[in-house]
Amino acid sequence: MSDGPMPTSHERADERLRQAIEARTTTVQPSVEAGLDRISEKLEATTRLPRAAGAPRSPRPQRPPWLLVAAALVLLVAVAGGLLVVREDDGDRVDVIDQPDRPATTATTGTTAPPTTATTEAPDSGASTTVPSTPGPITSVFEIPQDILVGAVWPRPSSDVRFDDPVAAARSFARYLAHYANPVVGEFRPGDARSGEVPVRPTARGPETTVLVRQLSDDHWYVIGSATEDIVVDRPASGEQLFDSRQPLTGRALAFEGTVHVELLAYLADGRHVSLGETIVTGSGSPPAGPFTGSLDWSPASADMEPVGVLIFSTADESAETGGTWQAVAVPVRLVPDFYN
Amino acid sequence: MADVAALSSELDRLYREHYRSLVRLAAILLDDVSLCEEIVQDTFVAALRRGGGWDDPTRSAAYLRSAVLNGARSHLRKQQVRRRWLRSATPPEIGPGADRPALIAAEHQAMLEALRALPDRQREVLALRYYLDLSEAEIAATLGISPGSVKTHAHRGLAALASRFEEVDR
Predict the structure, then answer these.
(1) In this structure, are residues A105 and A163 in contact, taking their beta carbons and an 8 Å threshold?
(2) A37 contacts B2? CB cut-off 8 A
(3) Which of A18, A45, A121, A128 is the most exposed place for a label (fewest CB within 10 A)?
(4) What is the ipTM of this complex?
(5) In this structure, what DSSP letter does residue A177 have?
(6) Three-state secondary structure call for residue A173
(7) Hey, are the CB atoms on A320 and B39 less than 8 Å from each other?
(8) Do the beta carbons of residue A280 and residue A262 sit within 8 Å?
(9) Which residues of B touch A18 (CB under 8 A)?
(10) Contact (Cβ atoms closer than 8 angstroms) between residue A214 and residue A221
(11) What is the pTM of this model?
(12) What is the 8-class DSSP label of residue B79?
């Protein structure tokens, strides 16, 4: 970077941003008293909650009083969404998501360990299955051991991030790929000599997402998937090939209003990930978990994209207690866009 | 009407001191002001449920800002999904809304939209820095990240905005 025009454009952006924020905030004049009235109403609704005598207070806000608020929010969001539709159309833009801050664990570059014939634990159920080992064009493009290339959900082998600690790998996955706001990460639960699981929760009492971790052939720890009780994905299966078109999605879910967000992420050669498509599927809003079906339209981001990706099925924290993800299932998949055929 | 007694004295003080600025903070990130008010109100409701621990003004303010940013982020993500969902389900040819309030100049609106399109952390760091004039340490405490990360996010975010508007200026 040279000391040329950059400072000027930064200064200009700095000034413009300051003015835009000032202009925006001066038009917003909320009523303090009206806000207090609304808070009182919401509190009153909360205290009217039916609760069995002596029953312990739920660690999460009870559903009923929130339903009215949530319904109002959904309407507002729908209106806001409608307004946004008429604005700039950026639907075809591919968002490149930032690399995570470098973890505090050892980072190495240029993985050169020899390829192995790998079996990897299926991340969606914890059952042991063999990941398809027919590499196709993958090994000709990337000189990366097959078990890592196909099995690693996080970190991607093409990035220079590596973890010597399974808990650190799980925490980084939760924070940067699954978008937990402040994940509460438990202790490593060993499975066999080179694999195990790490419980991750959105809050101390929130539901567990079990992050499956494995020490792959370069002796570093990788996340190979995640599973929860409330979201069970039947299709696609772990390691399934997704062709460049409409991908069916089936499974069962229990979530607030039954809504589960689905996003397909793939990786560029430098380890950054891109979103190839997203949708929502609807399971059940009350126990037991109900079936969901849906489809995901996706298309490749670029020829620079790795031919593996991950589908994230997640639910958001509807209480806004954390603002992040509530539960997340990660399913590694193989991507077969036209230009690989 | 307003039941001030429902709030603890500390929260009452925090409410009176911060309610407007928290709504405005959310309004930098979201278009719908009534939604921003809901988010801030829900933050205080959650704070009341949480109970005490509001004696430290610095930490309390950081907690409230953090909760509001979390709420705004959550809604922004849902909006993005919903927007794409609606776009795929409805004809895309819809003209600009004639009734859109012209309170904010087009350039300011464009800048706000560019800000909202930034990654979460960059967007939030810039909002805290440019609206509340918080120091790097204060932003770090609010977002639960290191001061070094704050600096990085601010630099990247501003660079992205500068790059975008540099192209527009040409």
Answers:
(1) yes
(2) yes
(3) A128
(4) 0.81
(5) I
(6) helix
(7) yes
(8) yes
(9) 130
(10) yes
(11) 0.44
(12) H
